[in-house]
Design a protein that fits this description.
Layout lengths: L2 E6 L7 H17 L4 E3 L17 H16 L5 E14 L5 E11 L2 E2 L10 E2 L11 H4 L3 H7 L4 H4 L3 E5 L2 E9 L12 H6 L5 E5 L8 H16 L3 E4 L2 E5 L3 E6 L3 E3 L5 E4 L6 E6 L16 H19 L5 E4 L4 H14 L4 E5 L7 H14 L2 E4 L3 H13 L2 E2 L6 E2 L5 H24 L2 E2 L5 H6 L20 H15 L7 H5 L22 H12 L7 H10 L2 H5 L5 H5 L3 H15 L2 H7 L4 E3 L20 H12 L1
Parallel strand pairs: 1-2, 2-3, 8-9, 9-10, 12-22, 16-17, 16-21, 17-18
Antiparallel strand pairs: 1-15, 3-4, 4-5, 4-6, 7-8, 10-13, 11-12, 13-14, 19-20
Helix pairs in contact: 1-2, 8-9, 8-14, 9-14, 11-12, 17-22
Length: 629
């Protein structure tokens, strides 16, 4: 009876030595458990998101060398693994050496060649070139190779015949995107389906995205059911990045039987190996569908991502500026779980505009967490800075004339924010021996509701891919489930969100941020996360049709509540669109790395150009029409 092991390993990007040691360890474990086949993830040797490390020939040679170590370790066991394959005699379209994203199979120290492939490995057919993926920049696809050889992908894409203990098995080998072919001209799964296979294997390097696992179970379950054979999906765990955006890889490797049922799922964010007898999978009971709420998955992604990020940069201590608001409170509760309260310093930095309410809530939060706590008032420093700016002469060296700067109330707000981050938090972090966080949420990040070199600063923006409503949900989840007690004070959850930078943001008077989160969270989300991104033209079309809330997914009645007239609605729309496509882009470019959880995170996942706001001809027509009514 054929026994197949799925090895869910942590892949450390850019470290083939570490990854190969993990692979060799799992091979021994699989052999000890009686497995005939052991499957590892896509790009298990080098990692996936490596930037232009792929252009280093020395690195590529190292990956080949470690690949040979894995092949040599395949005595009496079939090892399936992902690695970069190099044809040193050919070039990519960029003139650099030819590289393939490849699926290797080794047995008894030798590679097993797919039936029709010109190489002793399977080449990835479909190259994702959207969101965070940039495969065509570095890798040559099977489609390109087929054209080069004067044939078609269907002629090259072929099963691998395995000879194990006197029996032959035919396996259909796919690499990640090859199983997600809805919008491609080729469907590798369907091409292989004609080959009378015994099972499919999809090796993946698939970053976590909220809701992706449910969709994958539907897609891959259907594929297994229609083909009538089992499918093994093996994904990695770990943390990888493309500079600006940081992604968790959750694993969740899954075995589907020939009925399309999920019969085995490996845990999120844990290394694991499981062995399944191929012939018995048909009769295995389907696992029950998870009833966990989305926020539970988000919490695990954030916790794992923060922990691994800190480990990668060797940071053990954290400083957080807390204001008595929800974002910094949630950040504090998160980091306390990761580093421990003894390694967490919370700093409250009140000015004359901070109320006794929020100062008290900050103290209550720190007490609940049992962490380090400091109160450093900033008003004296802010006043001193303003006085210096206004009283120091500004000399025109061309004419010799002198003038003085005038600090407006708006500039004074920015000075407060910068004093807190650039002076207090940066100094406290250095003295404490750690780093300080950026606590921005996604709504603020969308429209640049932050201060450059102020509250936008920090080493990581862990919450910047969460909308405000998700931040509140996370607060409730941590209180109810993670801590099992009230850690984030209810008063912080209940209070109006406010930066408290002026008397116009007095929380005791119910005054807060200009962002109306129950509506703007969803408006801003339509700018970013819709696959066909919304523009003011789309939003005005919905307004005209009376379907804004339906299309945005927000609560019914909010448009009329917040914007009694068309002029009010249009003014608000243009205010935020101008910011989103204007100064906010410059701020996002300078923002800290963002930990991704959504289907579209800022950074490399949402590529932007600083071109300024644009309104289509149709938008201008709709605007004139609505204002004339």
């Amino acid at each position: 009876m054929l026994k197949i092991a799925m090895a869910q390993m942590e892949v450390v990007p850019g470290h083939p030595d570490v990854n190969t040691a993990t692979i060799l360890r799992f091979i021994e474990e699989a052999r000890a458990k009686g497995a005939d086949v052991v499957i590892f993830p896509e790009m298990a040797v080098p990692g996936y998101f490596l930037g232009d490390t792929w252009e280093q020939s020395a690195f590529l040679r190292d990956c080949e060398s470690y690949g040979r170590d894995i092949i040599a370790a395949s005595k009496d066991i079939t090892v399936m693994f992902g690695n970069v394959a190099i044809d040193w005699q050919k070039k990519n379209n960029d003139g650099r050496v030819r590289k393939y994203n490849a699926f290797f199979i080794a047995r008894d120290g030798e590679l097993v060649q797919p039936d029709n492939m010109p190489y002793p490995y399977t080449i990835k057919t479909l190259m994702p070139n959207y969101r965070e993926f940039d495969d065509t920049r570095h890798f040559f696809s099977l489609q390109k190779l087929a054209r080069e050889l004067g044939t078609t992908p269907s002629k090259l894409l072929s099963p691998v015949t395995l000879k194990i203990r006197g029996q032959r098995y035919r396996a259909g080998c796919l690499l990640c995107e090859d199983g997600w072919s809805d919008d491609y001209e080729f469907a590798p799964f369907e091409l292989l389906e004609k080959e009378h296979l015994d099972f499919y294997v999809n090796i993946s390097a698939s970053p976590y995205t909220l809701g992706k696992n449910d969709k994958r179970n539907r897609v891959f379950g259907r594929q297994a059911r229609e083909a009538g054979v089992p499918l093994f999906y093996v994904n990695c765990i770990g943390l990888q990045n493309n500079g600006k955006t940081v992604y968790t890889f959750d694993g969740s490797s899954t075995a589907y039987n020939e009925k399309g049922d999920v019969v085995r799922t490996l845990p999120e964010y844990e290394e694991a190996l499981t062995v399944l007898p191929l012939a018995e999978m048909k009769n295995m009971a389907a696992e029950p569908e998870s009833e966990e709420k989305d926020i539970a998955h988000i919490y695990r992604a954030l916790h794992y991502g923060i922990r691994r990020f800190l480990e990668n940069i060797h940071m053990k201590k954290i400083v957080i500026g807390i204001s008595g608001g929800i974002d910094s409170a949630v950040a504090a509760a998160l980091y306390a779980k990761v580093v421990g309260p003894e390694n967490l310093l919370l700093v409250n930095m009140p000015s004359v505009f901070n109320s006794a309410t929020t100062k008290g809530l900050s103290q209550e939060l720190a007490n609940n967490l049992g962490c380090q706590y400091m109160i450093i008032p900033i008003q004296e420093s802010v006043d001193h800075t303003i006085k210096q700016l206004e009283e120091t002469p500004m000399v025109n060296l061309g004419t010799g004339s002198e003038t003085h700067l005038k600090v407006s109330s708006f500039v004074a707000e920015n000075i407060q924010a910068r004093d807190r981050s650039a002076r207090v938090l940066a100094g406290a972090a250095a003295a404490f021996g750690g780093g300080f966080t950026c606590n921005a949420n996604k709504a603020e990040t969308t429209v640049g509701y932050s201060t450059l070199y102020g509250d936008q600063s920090g080493f990581l923006a862990a919450l910047a891919d969460l909308w405000k409503y998700q931040v509140y949900a996370l607060a409730h989840y941590m209180n109810d489930v993670v801590y099992g007690r009230e850690v984030v004070p209810q008063g912080i959850i209940d209070i109006v969100p406010s930066a408290e930078l002026s008397s116009a943001q007095n929380v005791d008077e119910g005054k807060g941020d200009p962002i109306k989160y129950p509506y703007h969270d969803y408006l801003f989300r339509s700018f970013v996360e819709r696959w066909q991104k919304a523009t003011p033209e789309d939003v005005l079309e919905w307004y005209k049709a009376g379907t804004v809330e339906k299309n945005l997914g927000c609560e019914e009645g909010l448009v009329q509540k917040y914007f009694p007239t068309a002029a009010d609605f249009i003014s608000d729309l243009e205010r935020w669109w101008n910011l989103f496509t204007g100064i906010a882009i410059a701020k996002r470019i300078q923002a800290p790395p963002i930990l991704a959880v959504s289907r579209r995170a800022y950074g490399f996942d949402h590529r932007e150009a600083q071109n300024g706001a644009y309104y289509t001809r149709r938008y201008r027509e709709l605007k004139a029409e609505l204002l004339a009514e």
